[in-house]
Amino acid sequence: LLALWSPPMKYHLAVAQYEHLGYPAGFPDPEQEHYTAPQLTPDTPRIQLRLAGDKRKHNEGRVEVFYNAAWGTVCDDDFTIHAAQVVCKELGYLEAVSWSPSSKYGKGQGPIWFDNLHCTGKEKTLALCPSNGIGISDCKHSEDVGVVCSDKRIPGFKFVNTLPNHNLDIQVEDVRIRAILSSYRKRIPVTEGYVEVKDDGKWKQICNTEWTQHNSRIICGMFGFPGERKYNARVYKMFARRRKPTYWDYAVNCTGNEAHLSSCKLGQGTSMKPNETCPGGLPVVVSCVPGRDFAPTPMTGFRKAFRQEQPLVRLRGGAIVGEGRVEVLKNGEWGTICDDNWSLLSATVVCRELGFGTAIEALSGGRLGQGMGPVHMNEVECSGFEKSITECFFNKEALGCSHEEDAAVRCNVPAMGFQESLRLSGGRNPYEGRVEVLVERNGSLVWGTVCSDSWGTMEAMVVCRQLGLGFASNTFQETWYWPGEVSADSVVMSGVRCSGTEMSLSHCLHHGAHLSCAKGGGRNAAGVSCSETAPDLVLNPQVVEQTTYMEDRPMFMLQCAYEENCLSSNSSQAPANSYRRLLRFSSQIHNNGQSDFRPKAGRHSWVWHECHRHYHSMEVFTLYDLFTLNGTKVAEGHKASFCLEDSECDEGIEKRYECANFGEQGITVGCWDTYRHDIDCQWIDISELKPGDYIFQIVINPNYEVPESDYTNNIMKCRCRYDGHRVWMYSCHNGGSLSTETEQTFPGLLNNQVTHR
């Protein structure tokens, strides 16, 4: 059963893995592919193109031309988007997106074959564009041009080998691993089988006489697997005897560090006669090793979450499995990588290290949110065969690097088919709607709704991730305004409780077959809306450490704070002329995410507090707690968001939110909101606290009212010493910023991933 809507190509799935299932009744047949190879006159110079260099994606790179038995480059003089269009179409891509001068993808080698190109964009090959003439140039390799092509391929594009007996770039319509043995056919993901190439609309096998382990490594990487392994060749020999294979005309020659098969060279044509089998060989078989998060285990089935037992590297801030900002552990502290020289090769090393396949994209410029703490690595250069990014060459000096240059990755992950068992129904666009799940009932598969009791942000996050739609932006306990499929009104899942890291809603805790839902389904079913981006609030620990002090304040000056429950429970018996001892500090809360932080409640539902004369857009925005060293809470406070606004912003970013005159509240990306130490409730009441050593803790957005890309950094902890007269605050740090060993010296909560309902 296929989902009727496929998400944006942000989440690349190997659709061919499911082609054998066919299409549901009434589903339109796929469009027939039409591609006509260009007809060139005999006097047209025969060239071949490829994209090379320090690439971040397989569909971009330095333009290289093969002519006269040598690879060379193209000069950027007079180069335009029209020339880029010709390059991309000649390589089988639908169109050009952009081009870059001045050797952005590194300096090439060999001749500079083209200079002063004047293309109209309609030429069938770059060789037909007017230029100085092939090989006539006054350029240096510092002027080598690069292009970025669209992700989409020309339907039915067929590689035409115009230069026989030379290794060329492979251009294929599609590739798949087809499970052959019955023991692998029902397994998800597909890890072993024939490697098949779609050629002229037909799936063909590859002859294994020239196949290498490097080729298998690239195939496995494309399908989301970090490595390959040996398989039982005898069984496949028997199968090939019974069913005659149809072979592809070419051999493949990969070096082993490519991110995609399209970067490998196409070997010499096998020039087989009709009906001839692969002489002395068999169809290529690969057997891939799935990463730990996708490997079936006898005891538990698939691993239910993708929490990495991260040794030295982790991903943060990504919406889906296998993407995020790259962070490395050094000297017990997590830090980021500067994007100088960041390439697809280095990104692939990270992906494989974390149990994913090759990299789809190497992202730069803090595209998946900015980190905190140090920048540990700069100018990273990998060969592609390293076991860890920490083994690659890098510049230890990160001078001039800021978190605006944090590197990130998107990795190929195995096609698990999770999207097939979940859908959003009735929404105004594909990013919203009532949640409907596919479950087995009485031996048949039926669609139904999810009970909205206890439905919250964490559950919605899992739904959006499972569908490849990014982050949750809102959760809904009523969906009467989204009329879904009437046949799917019945509740088929209840009691859903997610930690937020699961890959599928079915992996969350739920009631199973014993449903319990007082509200019922239909109009009261759970719903979500998703967004490709989310905010990420992070507290500045240095500001807390530097601004902490104590104040003894008379009770008669604390009446408004008392009404808002900002004092300890014992204060209700305190006489008006007594004093309360307050531990005061400032909070500077940054939005390091990709979208603005806005309160869930609209202005019409903000609560007016007469005493303080202001509105609360979130009743509990932050929690303040003091714990003993064994984790027992001894004092607490909280702060409502009476004013979420942009106090200051990074250079070049304008403030958007201001509380004055009942203005819009929020925190813009790249800005921060400062709650000064001298405002009401910006404290913990420690009047009854005994002298000793404590853990001080702040949690932002503790009830997950507003979805964020990363909740682990919403917590901040400090060591605190109180001798009855003075207070010291030291070793302040954000959750997840230190190694597990260092973090364990701080008792209490490790991060903000805790049960909150």
From TrEMBL:
Which reaction equations make up its catalytic activity?
L-lysyl-[protein] + O2 + H2O = (S)-2-amino-6-oxohexanoyl-[protein] + H2O2 + NH4(+)
Q: Name one GO molecular function term.
A: copper ion binding
Q: Which cofactor does it need?
A: Cu cation
Post-translational modification, as annotated? The lysine tyrosylquinone cross-link (LTQ) is generated by condensation of the epsilon-amino group of a lysine with a topaquinone produced by oxidation of tyrosine.
Q: What is its EC number?
A: 1.4.3.13
- Please give the GO cellular component terms listed in this UniProt entry: basement membrane; chromosome; endoplasmic reticulum; extracellular space; membrane; nucleus
Q: Which UniProt keywords apply?
A: Basement membrane, Calcium, Chromatin regulator, Chromosome, Copper, Disulfide bond, Endoplasmic reticulum, Extracellular matrix, Glycoprotein, LTQ, Metal-binding, Nucleus, Oxidoreductase, Repeat, Repressor, Secreted, Signal, TPQ, Transcription, Transcription regulation
Q: Does the keyword 4Fe-4S apply?
A: no
Q: Under which main EC class is this enzyme filed?
A: oxidoreductase
Disulfide feature: C75-C139, C88-C149, C119-C129, C254-C264, C382-C392, C498-C508
Q: Which GO terms describe its biological process?
A: chromatin organization; collagen fibril organization
Q: Which Pfam families match?
A: Lysyl_oxidase, SRCR
Q: In which compartments does the protein localize?
A: Chromosome; Endoplasmic reticulum; Nucleus; Secreted, Extracellular space, Extracellular matrix, Basement membrane
Q: What does this protein do?
A: Mediates the post-translational oxidative deamination of lysine residues on target proteins leading to the formation of deaminated lysine (allysine).
Q: What is this protein called?
A: Lysyl oxidase homolog
Origin species, per record, is Cyclopterus lumpus
* Gene that this sequence comes from: loxl2b
